[in-house]
Amino acid sequence: MTATHTPRAHSAKYAWAGGLTVFAAVMLTIAGLLDVFRGIMAIAEDDVFVATPDYVFEFDLTGWGWVHLALGVVAVIISLGLYQAALWARIAGVAVAALVIIANFLSLPYYPVWSVIMIAISGFVIWALCVARRDDVGL
């Protein structure tokens, strides 16, 4: 029996994969809640948001708020599935994190630092969900 096939190495592999899934779940929950709050602020037409003239991707503030609110709610629901290590949640988590990246890319000129932070969080979610194989997580 080689060192990589010992029961201890096998359990460490499961712990590493499970830890990445929990990391993705926590980060997706945070990103989802932040998107929910951002969406609510935009729907309420809060004075927090600035208007950038002459931007190619110009959106109505209320419509933009609904997009972020919907993405945030979906992200939180998917993160609940990730806490259960469900395969559907891993697949949907990658998809919704990609959509969050796109939505934040579109709002990059309005809030560059915030958008870059959200893009980075979503990138880590995608990485964490894709690096652990299905059989490593125990699905």
Automatic annotation (TrEMBL):
Pfam families: DUF7144. Keywords: Membrane, Transmembrane, Transmembrane helix. Residues 21-134 form the DUF7144 domain. It comes from the Bacteria. The chain crosses the membrane at residues 20-44, 64-82, 87-107, 113-132. This is DUF7144 domain-containing protein. It comes from Streptomyces broussonetiae.
